[in-house]
Amino acid sequence: MASMEVLWGDLLRHRADFDKFHLRSALADDPYRFNRYSIEMEGDLTLDYSRHRISDKTLLLLESLFEQAEVRGRFADMCAGKIINETEHRAVLHTALRGGVDEVSVNGQNVTKDVEEVKQRFLAFASGVRDGTIRSHTDEAFTDVVNVGIGGSDLGPRMVTQALKGWTDGPNAHFVSNVDGAHLGDCLENLNPATTLFLVASKTFTTQETMANARAARNWIVSTLGEDAPGAHFAALSTNADAVQAFGISTERMFEFWDWVGGRYSVWSAIGLPVAIAIGPERFEEFLSGARAMDEHFATAPFRANMPMMMAALSLWYRNIWACGTQAILPYDQRLENFPAFLQQLDMESNGKMVRQNGKPISRPASPVIWGSAGTNGQHAFYQSLHQGADMVPCDFLIAAKPTDASEDQHEMLLANCLAQIEALAFGRSEENVRAQLAAEGMSDDKIDRIAPHRTFAGNRPTSLLLYEQLTPHMLGRLIALYEHKVFAQGVIWGVNSFDQWGVELGKVMANRLLGSIQSGEKGEEDPAVFQRLMSYRAD
Ligand SMILES: O=P(O)(O)OC[C@H]1O[C@](O)(CO)[C@@H](O)[C@@H]1O
């Protein structure tokens, strides 16, 4: 088989085959394009990738790339607990958290058994909070649960809790992440300390933002309910038992996870406790089972029927062959409004790297910038640029056929807008068509000459559509795991370690040094020139 570099060369040359390609004719000329370029899973989830600048040859070349990089074998290594996170010398086993897998051990630790034990503990805790048997210091049922965490200890549970609002019947869930004290302050403004439970979520239990917010939350409880109260009002989700105890949370109130769970892959672990409290243990199990179904699909489906592989392949095609620097995530679902932010961390913290696992530079750029927002809001903000801007931005549209509990007629409008956008992006509007319409409206030739270029849409802009029946816990589990595996497959092709994040360390170290300077008011040698100006503003 051809080497990776030869395949990349073939793909680059193949791009010239699209010099005269337009999605308008590709879709119009081939009534079977949707059938050929779509994948269905479990009868209720479809990936429609017919609106892409691709042909069968593109897919053949991309498939060879996946085979050459041994994506499937690397995934098997990951699921078997091999040390694939080499820079941190760790296994990567978020797949084991979904349950239903063969026994896995890491360094003599029976992972499957430990996962099940902790899950039973945190689900029992979730039930107790929900049914009021776990009570506050004042012997009341909890009405509000505040998750204090950041990054993976916030984005996942926050996004999932909001996405599954239609399935929520527990206490109110709140999420505080920012070290800006306004975040916690605004959250606590309308809460009653006597009925508020805090979950301090931090893999390391040393993260500056989380620990500052956790201390402030404890002070709030102590100042209103007394020194003895925090024990009943706090629980911890962490890998660091010593730090949890030092903070004053007992081990019975600590739900552990392990170093082989990356922060951005941790919503399936005890980090999912706020989700389990919101939707209940049974639905949480359905959420896990969705992810497990996607794991099996990724491991077994052939390339052309494999959703994560196809999404990864398309993303590589645009990033590396068409030099698209960004990709947009556009869920037509208000409750998925935090999905783009969640995927930003998943993709950019995993693959936003320029060095391969072996320490050598990557020969082509890896993770694009991931961005987006919920439709239809985005239509009235940045879609102008998606349609007529200079840059081509491949987009993922997501939509449910049936709403969870929104009104049916408004959901029909949502569906119509979503389908209209993918059609408009693909087809565009030719100058000829614009001129004909303006002439029919009675516009003078002079004016048509001036106006027509502005009203012409080039089209030929690529989109994927993820169409699903309804956003159930099982469906959301599948969607998240779909993107996890997409990111994994891309990381394998680029040869990066998708599971470390050294790039965030330097800023943390510098912030700690600067905190000392800001507190003392004395500029250190390495502090920025603007420091004195900052201090003068603070003095006024
Ligand atoms: O859960 P922790 O240890 O508080 O870390 C929070 C986040 O910080 C990071 O390490 C990056 O700053 C993320 O990877 C992680 O999800």
TrEMBL record:
Gene3D superfamilies: 1.10.1390.10, Glucose-6-phosphate isomerase like protein, domain 1
Keyword tRNA processing: no
GO CC, any one term: cytosol
Main location: cytoplasm
Transmembrane residue ranges: none
EC number per UniProt: 5.3.1.9
Pathway entry: Carbohydrate degradation; glycolysis; D-glyceraldehyde 3-phosphate and glycerone phosphate from D-glucose: step 2/4; Carbohydrate biosynthesis; gluconeogenesis
Similarity comment: Belongs to the GPI family.
Protein name: Glucose-6-phosphate isomerase
Gene name as annotated: pgi
